[in-house]
Specification:
The chain has twelve helices and twelve strands. It is α/β, with parallel strands linked by helices. The chain has two domains: about 5-15 and about 260-385, Aspartate Aminotransferase, domain 1 (Alpha-Beta Complex), CATH 3.90.1150.10; about 20-255, Type I PLP-dependent aspartate aminotransferase-like (Major domain) (Aspartate Aminotransferase, domain 2), CATH 3.40.640. Helix 7 (about 245-280) crosses helix 11 (about 360-380) and helix 8 packs across helix 11 (about 360-380). It starts with 5 loop residues before the first strand and ends with a helix. The model has no long low-confidence stretch (mean pLDDT about 95). Bound molecules: pyridoxal-5'-phosphate.
Length: about 375
């Protein structure tokens, strides 16, 4: 892919598919007009957006009218959670979420706590799963909203969204799912899944950055309030001039993903097996998450008596992550791994390998060798730490 690095950080961001880049360039030139403008050029931009909405809607099996364009999953999460909680506040102020959610979710709940909402923060088991019985027990008569992610960005652990959503329906609780790491990677049928609000972002499935969407179910009790103000676009829920080129790119990325979901999944599963086989004999190595279940594009491992940031340097030219990329300026041990019961030291040694459509067997074999050698070298340099 590149001469000077091997990219294994697809959970942080994916390269844009060249077909998507080509389409976006075309749209950049011919779809520059404001899609709200009622003239020929505006209608051209509008048509590109409508086409993309149909492509994304087909991937999720929803009506295109239920999709709201946003700047990415951070905005979608903020809009869904703050917008739904505030809209339903007169009915009750209790909300439920999981401690291992992305910051784009946890920080919104933190803000809502300051506004007077009460949040129950659930802990997953040590493999990262949320037990539906634990979830059901947390719901109360005044619970209005629950938010649980589909695929965890650090560990790849997948939650049982069908069961959790079913429980929400039984209790009349709105259910939001952060699916930033799931859309375009696993099959999601929103006619079959009991989900009310779902966040996604283009740059995790070979589309552009800076564009995402929020699915809002077409049900009378599923309203959200805007969090941005400034115009009537997108049914008064999300104002702002829509970028036809970025949206067209996301639409095509969704279309491409729909055609290769199964092949991608099988490819990633084979690669992850090779990677794990290559490193599982390293003394003291542990998987964070669940190798037998979950999204196969992520392998997160900790190792005893080795420090993650030093290991990251040893691993170059591999591009991998320690903890979450969104937290890379923060040297604290990952709160996600701490919630799985990992010690500070083990959490700090974590390396997240995340694989993608372009990843090859030889790249993961190289990565495994590099990991083994890197751990051995660090232990040689500081044998007393390894003792
Ligand atoms: C699970 C999850 N939610 C939300 C986000 C934020 O997405 P975006 O970068 O599109 O704002 C990410 C990105 O890392 C993510 O992995």
């Amino acid at each position: 892919m590149s001469d000077d690095f091997i990219y294994l950080d697809y959970a942080a961001s994916t390269p844009v598919d060249p077909r998507v880049t080509r389409l976006m360039l075309e749209c950049h030139e011919s779809g520059f007009a404001n899609p709200s403008s009622n003239h020929v050029a505006g209608r051209k931009s509008r048509a590109m957006i409508d086409n993309a909405a149909a492509q994304l809607a087909a991937l999720l099996n929803v009506d295109p009218e239920t999709l709201i364009w946003t700047s990415g999953a951070t905005e979608s999460d903020n809009l869904a959670i703050a917008g739904a909680a505030r809209h339903r506040a007169h009915r009750g102020k209790h909300l439920v979420t999981l401690m291992t959610e992305h910051k784009a979710v946890t920080d919104v709940f933190g803000m809502l706590e300051k506004e007077g909402f009460e949040v129950t923060w659930l802990t997953p088991d040590e493999s990262g799963h949320l037990d539906p019985a634990v979830f059901a027990a947390a719901l109360r008569a005044d619970t209005q909203l629950a938010s649980i992610m589909y695929v965890n960005n650090e560990t790849g652990v997948m939650q049982d969204i069908a069961s959790l959503g079913g429980i929400c329906r039984e209790h009349g609780v709105l259910f939001h799912v952060d699916a930033a790491q799931a859309v375009g990677k696993i099959a999601i049928d929103l006619q079959a899944l009991p989900v009310d609000l779902l966040s996604l972002t283009g740059h995790k499935f070979y589309g552009p950055k800076g564009i995402g969407a929020l699915y809002v179910a077409d049900r009378p009790d599923c309203h959200i309030e805007p969090i941005l103000f400034g115009g009537g676009q997108q049914r008064q829920i999300r104002p702002g001039t829509l970028p036809a080129d970025l949206i067209a790119g996301l639409g095509l990325a969704a279309d491409i993903a729909a055609s290769c979901l199964e092949a991608d999944f099988a490819h990633l599963a084979a690669l992850r097996r090779t990677l794990w086989r290559g490193i599982r004999d390293v003394e003291g190595v542990l998987i964070n998450g669940d190798i037998d279940a979950g999204f196969p594009g992520i392998l997160n491992v900790s190792v005893a008596n080795v420090e993650g940031e030093s290991l990251l340097l040893e691993l170059e030219p591999l591009c991998v992550a320690t903890g979450s990329a969104c937290n890379s300026t923060n040297q604290e041990p990952s709160y996600v791994l701490r919630a799985l019961g990992r010690s500070d030291l083990l959490a700090q040694s974590a390396i997240r390998f995340s694989l993608g459509r372009p990843t090859s067997e030889s790249e993961v074999e190289f990565a495994a060798r590099r990991y083994r050698d890197g751990v051995a070298r660090l232990r040689d340099l500081a044998p007393e730490a390894a003792a």
